[in-house]
Design brief:
Elements: H1 13-20, E1 25-30, E2 33-38, H2 41-48, E3 55-58, H3 59-67, E4 75-81, E5 85-91, H4 96-101, E6 106-110, H5 113-122, E7 127-131, H6 137-141, E8 147-152, H7 156-160, E9 163-168, E10 173-178, H8 188-204, H9 211-217, H10 219-238, H11 244-264, H12 269-280
Helix pairs in contact: 8-11, 9-10, 10-11
Length: about 280
């Protein structure tokens, strides 16, 4: 892996010392080649701005930042498998697998909310991610959430907290990237139309056993879903101890239920927002 030797030009030992202590950045030297690696989001920003040539990051974090729209897909020039995996875990002795397949709404503590939503969608589960930084196992052990979705190596911390693994990802990797760019945020209309297109495609080709197929098949279930989501959002709004993540999550669930009815009528949330805008201008 050869790095442009011009990086060394005009660089004093004092410069090197200062750069070594930049958070999330370390420097490796091989002969006359100086390699700059970035390990966290700040480091990837340095790569994005051209101040560094390579980013060195776990595939779990990179995938999460791509899913949340922070970064575009980078060029991966190398990767090394590691023992770690992302796992879904719950209290041992509780029928968590059955609860998952029954479509029960399960609050899931995680520092990977976007990855959790993707896993939930792909498996037709009903996980409600609740973001926390750092260790998540204690949230489940203390009864604050139903499940945890987090990274683990040996699984010892999971078991030490009285939890058992329900599902797990393939092994993760450490990846070396270059040319990564901060994602440009699409305008609101484009984002809403993307959501509308997603709902339409789900209605045209619903996945067997999914929540969408259930709501399409049984209008009574769809009405019950709409009512329950409104009630749950209202409860969160009236609860002084509720977090913003819970309110947003319940609001998104209600929006989904409403959008199902709108889409069947050939309408979308965009039509409602545009009407609100017209009213505000009167």
């Amino acid at each position: 892996m050869k790095i442009d030797n011009q990086l060394l030009h005009g660089l004093s030992s004092k410069d090197l010392l200062c750069q070594i202590y930049l958070r999330g950045v370390f420097i490796a030297r091989s002969g006359d080649i100086l390699v700059h690696f970035a390990r966290d989001e700040r480091g990837l920003d340095l790569v994005s701005s051209g101040q560094r040539q390579l980013g060195f990051i776990g595939s779990d974090r990179l995938d999460e930042w791509i899913l949340d729209g922070s970064f575009e897909e980078p060029e991966v020039i190398d990767c090394v498998p590691i023992k770690c995996r992302l796992v879904l875990a719950g209290l041992a002795g509780v029928p968590n697998r059955q609860r998952l397949f029954d479509g029960e709404e399960l609050v899931t503590t995680t520092s990977y909310p976007y990855t959790t939503r993707k896993v939930s969608r792909v498996n037709a589960w009903n996980l409600v991610p609740e973001f926390v930084e750092g260790g998540c196992e204690g949230e489940v052990a203390s009864g604050l959430s139903d499940l945890v979705y987090d990274i683990t190596d040996t699984g010892n911390t999971i078991r030490d907290n009285g939890l058992e693994i329900i599902d797990q990802s393939d092994r993760l990797s450490l990846v070396v990237v270059r040319g990564i760019k901060r994602a440009t945020k699409p305008d609101l209309r484009e984002q809403i139309m993307r959501i509308v297109d997603t709902y339409r495609s789900r209605i045209l080709s619903p996945k067997i056993g999914s929540l969408t197929s259930l709501l399409l098949r049984d209008e009574n279930e769809a009405v019950k879903k709409l009512g329950s989501e409104f009630t749950e959002l209202l409860q969160e709004l009236l609860d002084d101890e509720s977090t913003s993540d819970r309110v947003v999550s319940e609001g998104a669930d209600l929006l989904y239920a409403v959008s199902m009815f709108l889409t069947k009528r050939g309408l979308s949330i965009l039509d409602i927002l545009e009407e609100d805008i017209r009213r505000s201008l009167r």
